[in-house]
Each structure stands twice: as structure tokens, then as C-alpha cells.
Design goal:
10 strands; elongated; 244 residues; four-stranded mixed beta sheet; 9 helices; alpha/beta; single chain
């Protein structure tokens, strides 16, 4: 069992209707009382516990924590199911997939999920999701978006990306040496590959990309943080789609 302790993370998890255990309450402050009321509405059990016990279970708590099953910490959808739905879209229909290639920092992962929620990403595809191990950090950093954004993992990320290509997706890798993203059409079925914090996009995934795209920069440091770059690129996809 793992424990979510951020107020937003707890609130969004309960609202999402995904399975969860008891809401543990040690200090019923105003925000905690709101969560207790929400738990009552959604039929989530509320347990009163001592501060010492909550300190042991969720050291970063602010008087409240939510038990969650690590297996169901985020919405899951299989790639096959997603591709079946995409095949049913009319010609010109829009879908956006974020492909995360070894994003190892849970704070980056959570920030990317928050951008995915804000800009309508339809699926997050990754080799190692790490959502169970770092569920509380990811949920906090995503401000609860981790409870809403569909995610799936695969043992072979290049093969999964090839499946996307076969289904009509254009695959774009984010790279500071690529062509300007603002000059590319990112409408329709689109997947954006984001590389890990250290090595960027791996060679095999790079070979799967139809093109590499970049964000114009006037800065003096090498590049944007991967989570910031993700938000900019997802926004550009939304901007282009709304200009139709």
C-alpha cells in the first residue's frame, strides 16, 4: 500500500473514481475537512488516526493521507485498445501521444502529466512508468493530473512506436537540433517523443521518428528542462488545432 498526501492529489484521485483505500485523517483542518466531505460523497472510508501513525505511513502529510493500491495508481489503457479507438476516428481526426523515453525523475514525470492533462494528450506511452514506486511524488507534482491522464507501458518502446506509425501517426522527436516545431504541421494523429534527462532520445527511438523538432530559444543555457519542453510542444499542438 502507498499513500498520497498532497491535497490536490488526494482530491483528484477521489474525484476520478479510481479504486482507493481509506482516507486517513489525523488533523482535521479546513482543507482536510473538505476532503472528508468529498470522501463521504464518493463513499470512500474515512479513518481517524494518530499523528504518530500518519508520520510513519506518510512522512510528508499535512494531517491527511489517502491509501491507494500501487497497481491502480494511474488510469491504464492498453496500446491495442487505444489503436482500435484511433482507427475508428474519421480522416483528419486529432490524437496526441506523448512517448517518454526513460524519464527517470518523478518530479519531471509529474510535471509532464500535468501538461498532458492541460493540453489534451490522449495517451502517455513509456517503457518504465515508475508510477507505483513514486506515486506520491508524481501525484503531488502533477497537481492530481496523474489520476486522469491515460498511461500505458511497454517492454519494447521502439516496437510500440512502430505500431503507432502503422496506425497513421506521425512521430516527432524533441531535439534542440531539430527543425522549428512552429513550422511543422502537428495536426492529425501525432506522437511526440521526449528523451530522458541525461542522454536524450535513444538511438532506436530516434530512428523511428519521422522528423526531429525543436523549440526556438534565445537563452544562454543549453536547453529547456524536459518537462518545460513538453508543455511548450503540447501547447503548440493545441494552438495549431484550434486555428483550423
Amino acid at each position: 500500500m502507498i499513500y498520497l498526501s498532497g491535497f490536490h492529489a488526494i482530491e483528484e484521485r477521489i474525484k476520478s473514481g479510481r479504486p482507493c483505500g481509506a482516507l486517513l485523517v489525523a488533523k482535521p483542518g479546513p482543507r482536510a475537512r473538505e476532503l472528508v466531505g468529498l470522501a463521504g460523497e464518493r463513499r470512500v472510508r474515512v479513518d481517524r488516526v494518530g499523528t504518530a501513525e500518519l508520520d510513519r505511513l506518510a512522512p510528508d502529510h499535512r494531517g491527511v493521507a489517502l491509501e491507494v493500491d500501487e497497481v491502480s495508481a494511474a488510469p491504464e489503457v492498453s496500446l491495442d485498445e487505444f489503436l482500435e479507438r484511433s482507427a475508428a476516428l474519421p480522416d483528419g481526426g486529432d490524437l496526441l501521444v506523448a512517448v517518454l523515453d526513460e524519464i527517470t525523475d518523478p518530479h519531471n514525470y509529474g510535471a509532464i502529466l500535468r501538461s498532458c492533462d492541460q493540453f489534451g494528450v490522449d495517451l502517455v506511452l513509456t517503457r518504465h512508468r515508475r508510477i507505483a514506486k513514486h506515486a506520491d511524488v508524481i501525484a503531488k507534482t502533477s497537481a492530481g493530473a496523474a489520476a486522469w491522464v491515460p498511461q500505458t507501458e511497454t517492454a519494447n518502446l521502439p516496437r510500440a512506436v512502430e505500431q503507432l506509425k502503422d496506425a497513421g501517426f506521425w512521430i516527432y522527436g524533441a531535439d534542440m537540433e531539430g527543425e522549428r516545431a512552429f513550422g511543422r504541421s502537428l495536426r492529425g494523429k501525432t506522437a511526440i517523443v521526449l528523451g530522458g534527462e541525461g542522454g536524450g532520445i535513444s538511438r532506436l527511438l530516434r530512428e523511428c521518428c519521422d522528423a526531429m523538432i525543436s523549440i526556438p530559444s534565445a537563452g544562454r543555457v543549453d536547453s529547456l528542462n524536459v518537462s518545460v519542453a513538453a508543455g511548450v510542444l503540447f501547447y503548440e499542438v493545441m494552438r495549431q488545432r484550434e486555428q483550423r
